[in-house]
Amino acid sequence: MYKFKDKINNIEFPYVNKKRNHIVYFHFKLNKISLNDTLLSFNFSTFGVSFWDEKRLAINSNQKIIIYDIEKKQAHLECLLGSFIIKEEGLCLASKDWKYIENKVVNNWIIFDYINNREIKSFSFGKEGLYPHYFYEDRIIFQEKSYLIKCLSENGTVWTNDISDIGIWRRQTHGVTYREEYAIRRAITVVNDVLWLDISKGVIMGIDTQTGKTLHVFKEKDAEIIKMEGENTETKQYDFYHQTDLPEHPHTFYDEVTQKLFGVHNHQYYEVDLQAPKLQIYDLIDEYALYGGITPFKQGTSLVQLKAWATRSCFDDTHIYFIVDNASKAQIAALNRQTLKIDWVYEFDDSGILMQIEVSSNNLYVLDNQATLHIFEKQDVNFQ
User: Fold this and answer.
1) How many domains does the chain have?
2) Residue 246's pLDDT is what?
3) I need a labelling partner for 254 at 20 to 30 A (CA). Which of 48, 174, 196, 274 fits?
4) Is residue 238 part of a domain?
C-alpha cells in the first residue's frame, strides 16, 4: 500500500492542505520553509505555518501573518495577528490588536476579505482568552472557557451555551471515585448552521449557531455498538472511553462527501451520519489482533487495558491512517473506511516516538520526536 521512500532530518510543522495536493514543513536549522520539497526563497525567524486556503500559506512570523501565494510564489504581509479562522468564500476572522482601556483588555477583531484585500467589519470585545470557532458577518462564536461557548456581536452577547448542563462523568482511581466536568476540546466543523464539537471523554455535541441551543449530545452509553464478525466476548468489559485518564483525546474528522463525522480510538471506529444523526461504534478488537502489537493484553482472565491504541490520525477517501501508541514498537496502520479492515501496518526499525501523521494524494508523512520526517510513497492498489 505504501513503501518507505525517504527521511528528512530537522523538520517541524508538517502540514498537508485540505485537497491533499500540497505539503509544507519547516527546516529549523536552515530557517526556511519547504513547499512540496522546494525551499521557498525567504527566511523567517519565529513562526508557525499552515495552509490559509488552497492557494495560500499562512506563516506566523514575528507575531504577524505573512500570506504566501503558492501559484504566484509571492509573499504578502498583512497586519493580522493572533488567532484566525477562514471561510471558503475568501473571508477570514483575525485578531488585529488589543489595548488597555480603563484597566481592561479590549481585543479588536476584524472580518477580512483577503482575496480583494479589504476589511469587511470590525469588532471590539472587552474579554481575554477568547478563542474563535466560527463567524458570520454580524457575529462571532467564541469559546471563552473550557465549558463555555458564546456568540457575540457588536451589540453584545447573542447567546451563551454552558456545556456543563450535559452532566458530569465519573472516574475511579485506586478505589476512589472522582466527579469530573466535561470540557470542550476542539470545534470539528459547522454543517447546516450546526457547530459540532469534540468534548472530553468521547462526547460529540451539536449546537445551533443561530440560537445556541444544544441539538445533539452523543455519548458512548447511548451509541449503537456494532460487533464485527468473530468478535471476542471479552471485549464487552471495555468502554469506548476508559474511566481513567487518557493520554490524548481522539480527533474527530468530518468528511464532506459522505457527510459523516468519524474517527478511531482504542480498538474502535466511530462515526456520526449527519443526515440522520446518531453515534455508531464498530468494535475492531479481533481485526487489530491479527497484527502484532495492535492487541490488548490480559491480567489473569480480564482485559485490563489496551497495549496499543490510535492516538494521532489522518484520512483520505479510502482509509484512516493512525499512529499506534505502543511502548515497545513504533507502528503506523491504515484502516479501510469501507470494510473496516486493517489493510496495512508498518513497523519502524529505527525512529523516535511517533508524533504526527499526514497524508497527501501520493505520500504519507510521519514525524517523530527527533524531528525526523519519514516519507512513504503510495503504491498502486485498488480498494473497494
Assistant:
1) 1
2) 36
3) 48
4) yes
